[in-house]
Amino acid sequence: MDLFNKAEQVIKQAISNGYIILSAESCTAGMIGATLTECSGASKAYHGGFIVYDNRAKNTFINVPNEILNTHGAVSPECAEAMAKGTLEAYPNGNLSIAVTGIAGPDGGSTEKPVGLVYFGCCNTKDCKLYTEKKIFSGNRQDIRTQTVSYALDILLHNITMQHPA
After folding, report:
1. What is the pLDDT of residues 62-76, one digit of tens each?
2. Are 87 and 60 in contact (CB under 8 A)?
3. DSSP code of 102?
4. Could you tell me if residue 104 is inside a domain?
5. Is residue 141 part of a domain?
C-alpha cells in the first residue's frame, strides 16, 4: 500500500475513532505531517507536529530532558519515548502522538547505531499507552526516511484500530 493510501486510512480511522494526532519528527523532518496532510479533511484528525532536528529544539519545544540527550543520545528509545510524551504535553488537545528519531545517513552511523536505525515513540492517552519500537531500515537516505514514514503510519493505524503493524 502506498503512503497516500495509508495516510488516508489513518485520517479516516482517526476521525471515526475520535483521535487527534500529533507528530514529533527528527530524521524525517516533517515528512509524516506532510504525508498526513495530503489527505482532504486531515485537519479533523491531524493538528500538527514538531520538527525537532536539533537536540536543543527537542529540549525547548517538546521538553526532552537534557539528561536523556546527554546520557542516551537523540537516537535512543528513551529519546523517542520522551518526544512522544512531550508532544502531547506541549499540545494537550491531542491524544495520539508519533515520534521518530534515527540516522538516515549516509553519514552519522556507527557500529552501535548504524545508518538506518530508527526509534519510534508512540503515546496514546485514550488507551494509556506509551511505548517505543526499534527498526533498522536499509537503502539510501530517501529510502530510509520513506520507510520510516510508512512504519510510523502503520503504528498510528495500529493504535487507532488495534491491528498489529506490518
Report:
1. 999 999 999 999 999
2. no
3. E
4. yes
5. yes
Whole domain around residue 70: which residue ranges?
Answer: 3-108+117-161
- In this structure, is residue 26 part of a structural domain? yes
Per the structure, the count of domains in the chain is: 1
CB 113 within 8 A of CB 74: no
| Residues 96 and 19: beta-carbon distance below 8 Å | yes
> What cell does 42 get?
486531515
Q: Which phi and psi angles does 151 have, rounded to 5°?
A: -70, -35
Q: What is the CATH number of the domain that holds 122?
A: 3.90.950.20
Say yes or no to pLDDT of 31 above 90.
Answer: yes
Closest CA to 101 of 139, 55, 70, 140: 55
Sole residue written with cell 517538546 = 62
* Terminal-residue alpha carbon distance, the chain: 11
Q: What is the pLDDT of residues 109-134, one digit of tens each?
A: 999 999 999 999 999 999 899 999 99
Residue 166 lies in a domain: no
- At 103, give phi and psi (nearest 5°): -120, 105
Q: From its phi and psi, is residue 28 left (phi > 0), alpha (psi between -120 and 50) or beta?
A: alpha
Phi/psi zone of residue 41: left (φ > 0), alpha (ψ -120 to 50 degrees), beta? left
